[in-house]
Specification:
Blueprint (H helix, E strand, L loop, with lengths): L7 H5 L16 E5 L4 H6 L10 H8 L19 E5 L13 H18 L3 E5 L1 H7 L8 E2 L8 E5 L11 H15 L1
Parallel strand pairs: 1-2, 1-3, 3-5
Antiparallel strand pairs: 4-5
Length: 182
């Protein structure tokens, strides 16, 4: 598969860009990252940064038949899967987002969920979920509250910076969600 890596200048120029949501009717699970990395914004593909473990975790969990390349994200809706972000704009690090921006992103995400009505919203990152939806005591796993009337599941952030989870434990956490919604 041909895929050109963005240059460092292209990555730097991607600050504040957005990536289109991968949404539509009939989704089983809508995955929501925190926000795109500069690398993802430069490529136009979700979770594209080398070292991000989203695509391997999807496969280990059984959501996909093989590890997809980020450029193959368009295959997901046919599998009942979609991707969005709590905050649309790309940053170098998620900690560049403040609480107000996360909260505003949570409101936009709620509207998206109300429009498309996936069976489940899976937010990838408990800290972002807590801030965006004012749930300071939330933990990973299924949530007792819904968002836009849709079941919510908080999963570990697949970033390579999240050292608390190995690729295997990420796959297991994602597989628990898959066992309920596929």
């Amino acid at each position: 598969m041909e895929f050109s890596r963005p240059t460092p200048d292209e990555v730097a120029a991607a600050r504040n860009r957005t990536i289109p949501d991968l949404v539509g009717p009939g989704l089983k699970v809508l995955f929501s990252g925190i926000n795109p990395s500069l690398y993802s914004a430069a490529t136009g593909h979700h979770f594209a940064r080398p070292g991000n473990r989203f695509w391997p975790a999807l496969h280990l969990a059984g959501f996909t038949p093989r590890v997809l390349h980020p450029s193959e994200q368009g295959l997901l809706p046919a599998m009942g899967l979609g991707i969005t972000n709590v905050v649309a704009r790309a940053t170098a690090r998620a900690d560049e987002l403040d609480a107000a921006e996360l909260k505003a992103g949570g409101e936009i995400l709620t509207g998206l969920v109300e429009r498309w009505r996936p069976q489940c919203l899976a937010v990838l990152g408990v800290t972002a979920y807590r801030s965006a939806f004012d749930r300071p005591k939330a933990r990973t796993g299924p949530q007792s509250e819904t968002i836009g009337g849709v079941t919510v599941w908080v999963l570990p952030n697949p970033s390579g910076l999240n050292a608390h989870y190995t690729q295997q434990t990420l796959g297991s956490a994602y597989a628990e969600l898959r066992s309920v919604f596929t």
